[in-house]
Write a structure and sequence with these properties.
Length: about 350
């Protein structure tokens, strides 16, 4: 067998190259990759070469949304065997620090996260990975769905952080990949009023198709009025900022009800001008989200039992040999594509 990688050799360029075949350590498995999704962070590294202070060291392998087949197990691995279909949770925590030991391993300062510099990603044919972070997929779950579990985990963690439950009303600002995954999570967790706002009409059409009860384009309607009308003048129980925009973040206080929750999901790099008096008078809580924790088994169960339909995402697919084209397409068609998948296997 021969291993190949698709690595970024320059900003805006991915090339294929041979690389060594991995061997499984005692607590690792070797995975033959089947699908790898393109995340917003991957696209940003490809386009800009950096995200904030994190610079991609060239050459650099992108990709952390992956599914594949176990081909080899280390001596201490008992829960998996060759042939198992798995999804990889891409962050490997130290397992020893206070945050890890209290269950908040996503906040581990020593986490090794795929495609987060200096750690290479998973866009390669074969890779060794800790078995404890590989989750076996049910027989009736597709490998495409397996690769989309990672962004779904972000949405599910966000919904949990917001306390979404039966009968709750939510407002989601932004309907890109994470906005859509947050929508699916909120719907599965029982939210009965789901309002989605975005500047792109095509995205709002997708949000409506996937379960939004109200969609609002700020270029066409007053979003505040739309929220108040849908909630009987109260505002939403939970407001999610998923666009990563200082503009939408500054507007969150308008849409949340008294005693409600604002969840910051998007990565907002710029300073935000915010009216804290507006939310102080409502005793609103602002909660942030960093990746996810303890979500993969729940996400797999939700998809397996039909509570969340990832097939409805209808991802765009490219073969491994067209990895560069896949990134170019994702960036140039960002307003149309919810998710792009690269089929790594032959």
């Amino acid at each position: 067998m021969k291993n190949r990688k698709a690595h970024m050799t320059a900003v805006g360029r991915i090339e294929l190259a041979d690389c060594p075949m991995p061997a499984a350590g005692a607590d690792e498995v070797v995975v033959r990759m089947e699908y790898c999704g393109i995340c917003g962070s991957d696209a940003h590294f490809y386009k800009e070469g950096r995200i904030g202070k994190k610079v991609a060291p060239l050459p650099f392998i992108l990709g952390h949304e992956v599914s594949g087949y176990v081909t080899e197990c280390g001596a201490d691995v008992t829960a998996l065997q060759p042939g198992d279909r798995v999804a990889l949770e891409p962050g490997v925590p130290c397992g020893k620090c206070e945050l890890c030991l209290t269950g908040k391993y996503n906040l581990c300062p020593d986490v090794h996260f795929l495609a987060a510099p200096p750690y290479d990603g998973a866009l390669r044919k074969f890779m060794a990975f800790p078995a404890k972070m590989c989750f076996k997929l049910p027989d009736d779950m597709t490998m495409q769905e397996g690769a989309m579990l990672e962004p779904l985990a972000v949405g599910m963690h966000a919904a949990r952080r917001g306390g979404v439950g039966l009968g709750k009303s939510v407002c989601i600002l932004g309907s890109g990949t994470i906005g859509i995954m947050t929508l699916l999570a909120c719907k599965a967790m029982g939210a009965t009023e789901i309002i989605v706002s975005d500047l792109v009409g095509h995205r709002l059409e997708s949000a409506k198709r996937l379960g939004a009860t109200v969609t609002a384009n700020p270029k066409e309607v007053d979003v505040t009025e739309a929220v108040l009308q849908a909630t009987g003048g109260k505002g939403c129980d939970v407001v999610f900022e998923t666009a990563g925009s200082p503009v939408t973040m500054s507007q969150t206080g308008r849409y949340v009800k008294s005693g409600g929750v604002i969840v910051v999901v998007g990565n907002i790099a710029q300073d935000v001008s915010y009216n804290f008096l507006e939310i102080s008078r409502k005793e609103v809580e602002i909660r942030t989200v960093f990746r996810y924790r303890n979500i993969y088994p729940l996400a797999i169960e939700a998809v397996e039992k039909g509570y969340i339909d990832l097939k409805a995402i209808e991802p765009k697919e490219f073969p491994f040999e067209q990895a560069d084209e896949a990134f170019q397409y994702t960036i140039t068609h960002a307003q149309e594509v919810i998710k792009t998948l690269i089929k790594v296997s032959d």
